[in-house]
Design goal:
The structure is a homodimer. The longest helix of chain A is centred in the middle third of the chain and has 21 residues, at about 110-130. Chain A has a single domain (about 5-275), classed as TIM Barrel (Alpha-Beta Barrel), CATH 3.20.20. The first copy, chain A, has helices at about 20-30, 35-45, 45-55, 75-90, 110-130, 155-165, 175-180, 185-195, 230-240, 250-255, 260-275, and strands at about 5-10, 30-35, 60-65, 95-100, 135-140, 170-175, 200-205, 205, 220, 245. In chain A, helix 1 packs parallel to helix 3 (about 45-55), helix 1 (about 20-30) crosses helix 11 and helix 4 (about 75-90) runs parallel beside helix 5. Chain A has eleven helices and ten strands. Chain A is α/β, with parallel strands linked by helices. The interface of A and B includes residues 158, 181, 182, 213 and 226 of A. Chains A, B: This is Sugar phosphate isomerase/epimerase.
Chain lengths: ~280, ~280
């Protein structure tokens, strides 16, 4: 049913422990997962690496580093330390991609430009460290509804403006359909990202409404919303991307269901809408 | 306290009836209001026009026309009829500006481009009708979080791409800080709009989080959020705009308070943050 490129991000089925995820993916014939730091740290980084390796699973990305926008020096130093730890964890998990959620506006600030510059400054310090460990930093533009509180990088264009200050094998971008589907500049920016070798991750979730309060966990199962996944897949492939296609959905409804049922549905929807 | 350019959109104080709004504005020394069709229709269009004229109030804009994206011919015909009625109402209220919320994706559709083209097609039919009545159509780009269900026009750039197919005195755009504050292309697009004489309305609301469920009524009082109003005012004025500055906030908290208190706060925040 799958084309061998499907990766399932663990947050899509966060009701599952890591061993359940590993077992479930093996049973379903899926050999790639995306991971998040908190559950990996709870289970143990080395232990997670062994579990996945023993299960024949590879890790397509680790979420997330970032939160670079604090102007306070002590807070910045803590963020950089935490990102170096995230890079170490990515290396330990043998994934080449650390996803970055860059951070919102500092409390009381209205200076988007300044916040974006602090992101670039932090990347200048982290990219060489990551490169030495075989890890690429992938800037994820988040939907503009997250601009104040999570990520001042709202478009692929903005993400590339920052990423292109660094070598492509050190800093790239995440193309996540949920965040960019509305943007008529996205096709041109995907081409730009691909031409530069900067599509480091390709993630899928559908756009559905009404959005829940806080808007964080309102993503839709593939096919339930407004995103034309096949069009986006065609765009990234035309731009030279042939890597994993990661499904990352935050949705209370999916989390309340049986994990195996959700995984089967993800695989089936992926085949129907994104292959 | 005010600079004489403040206009208060009635939805900001929707707990007030039209007579209360007129009386409250006169008392507060505010001589401009923005109106919405539903409360005007309830009170009576001609009656509203007389009330405001007798109170010495002018109408800076009428919200809203639009919802042009349905592909079904009968539904399109109904939308065009309704927009002609909105234009007539705008003319009766002696406002030169009808604000358009263009419409989201039709049920089941993922075709943003097609929906945007249907907007342009509808404007082709409506703009001459509006021009004959002295009414300008103002395309309002809505925040991308509304792209699927309310408005497929998400940026000033997209709005201008459509508006520029028509004469500037017939079709322009709304610059609303709430919808565009996050966009690093907004300054260049405001300049483009101004150079073409297409800034038909300038509206203010602040961006605050967390967003409420449905995200429609989560706008912030000026100064409570992330928007740099003075920067945006500087941009529109540098682009040649010298019209009214309309405060339009949808916020349950404001609606629960005493109207006169809210109006005084709007005037005070306007003077503090946007003059």
């Amino acid at each position: 049913m799958s084309d061998g490129r499907l990766s399932v991000n663990q947050e899509t089925i966060k009701q599952w422990s890591l061993p359940e995820l590993a077992e479930g993916c093996v049973k379903a014939g899926i050999d790639k997962v995306g991971l998040w730091r908190a559950p990996v740290q709870s289970y143990g980084v080395e232990r997670t690496a062994r579990l996945l390796s023993d299960s024949g699973l590879s890790v397509t990305s680790l979420c997330r580093g970032g939160f670079f926008t604090a102007p306070d020096p002590a807070e910045r130093a803590r963020a950089l330390d935490d990102n170096r730890a995230a890079i170490d964890e990515a290396a330990a998990l043998s994934t080449d991609t650390l996803v970055l959620v860059s951070g919102g506006l500092p409390e009381g600030s209205k200076d988007l430009h300044g916040a974006r510059e602090r992101i670039a400054d932090a990347l200048g310090q982290l990219a060489p460290y990551a490169a030495e460990r075989g890890v690429r930093l992938a800037i994820e533009p988040l939907h503009p509804m997250f601009a104040s509180d999570r990520c001042v990088v709202s478009t692929l264009s903005q993400a590339l403006d920052i990423a292109e200050r660094f070598p492509a094998d050190q800093v790239g971008v995440v193309v996540d359909t949920y965040h960019i589907w509305w943007d008529d500049q996205a096709p041109a920016q995907i081409a730009r990202a691909g031409a530069g070798g900067r599509i480091h991750s390709f993630q899928l979730a559908d756009w559905i409404t009404p959005l829940p309060a806080g808007v964080l966990v309102g993503r839709g199962q593939l096919g339930d919303g407004s995103v034309d996944f096949r069009a986006f897949r065609t765009l990234v492939e035309a731009a030279g991307f042939d890597g994993p296609v990661e499904v990352e959905i935050f949705n209370e409804g999916l989390w309340a269901r049986d994990g195996a049922e959700v995984l089967a549905e993800v695989a089936s929807r992926y085949a129907e809408h994104a292959c």
